[in-house]
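Dear support,

I submitted the protein below through the web form. The confirmation email said the job was done, but the results page showed an empty box. After a refresh the structure appeared. I'm attaching both so you can tell me whether what I see now is the final result or a partial one.
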Amino acid sequence: MKFLFLIGLSLCMQFFHAQSIKLNNAVVITQFDKEEDRYAMQALMADILKSYQIKVLPVMNVLKQGEDLQHLLQDSIQKVLLQKGFDTYIVVNVRGYDRTFKPSDDTQTLSELLETTSIYQIYRDEATSVSFEFSIYRDGKLISRQVLRCGNVSDRDSVLKRLRKRLPKKVIPSWLA
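What the results page shows now:
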């Protein structure tokens, strides 16, 4: 009985936690090995989020090409972003390939996450699925983390196509509530 109560309580907490996001603006940060993957994903995310009337700013429009993501946390850049109305950051990266992954339990701050580098690409040869992790931060603290698996992929373009189709159905509704 206690077990069922704890499961119910856990599900309720996840439900209310997911509903408290109310995403209305976002700076999109993508962490991929290849620069062209980072830009393609930022453009895709910006396009999808704009269709939901979410104010979006890809990090490529904030930092110079090749500039360290840690510069995003400088006070001067933070002030400019706040003046433009951006207080939320979405960090997108690949969680893995060809397995079912759960969101990471690690509660890194935005600064800690930006210090890490990614060795993953949007698509890897011989992979049939790619799992993306979306971490949302406000005030430098993690407020939500979700994983979306895109299966039946055969190349980089098919991954982007699957993500464009699945993200609005599976993940974005929980960001808007």
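Response: this is the final, complete result; the empty box was a page-load delay. The helical segments are 2-19, 35-50, 75-83, 110-115, 156-170, 172-176.
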